[in-house]
Known about the structure:
175 residues, mainly alpha
Amino acid sequence: MAVIITIMAFSLRPPHGATWTAVRAVLPGLLVYMLSFVFVAIYWNNHHHLLRAADRISGTAMWANMFLLFWLSLIPVVTVWIRDEYRQPLPAAAYGIVALAAALAYSLLVRTLIRANGLTSAVARAIGSDAKGYASLGLYVAAVGLAFVSPWIAYAIYVGVAVMWFIPDRRFTRS
């Protein structure tokens, strides 16, 4: 995941000039970078805690993990697309599709780890009903559709989901 963040950082563009107008021109790219950075950081943090809680990692869990990494590796692509075309609905929707796919992949990883470790395991206890995970899936689906009404609505939903997850998740520290 560090490589994904590094790739995103390499795509940042400095302002062309030393004026506020030049800074304003690169602001959309900086803002979407910040959102994507937080997005990847949240996955990295939760992934770390999830794997630490697991006593066993099955072959299926390894493949589910690769599936998650595949979707996360697309974050730099949609980040640059939004940077370049932030007023357009298709890049905003594509960001949501990647976010939704990553959330589904993370959910799959969680389920494979629960299967490998058992329903009474630390992983299963920490995840619980996963209301926040299911809420995220629903919000991403809504954002993808609403991106075609207004990309700004989709962006607001993406920020809302990030804020929801940015608030420390105590599930793993309690189990």
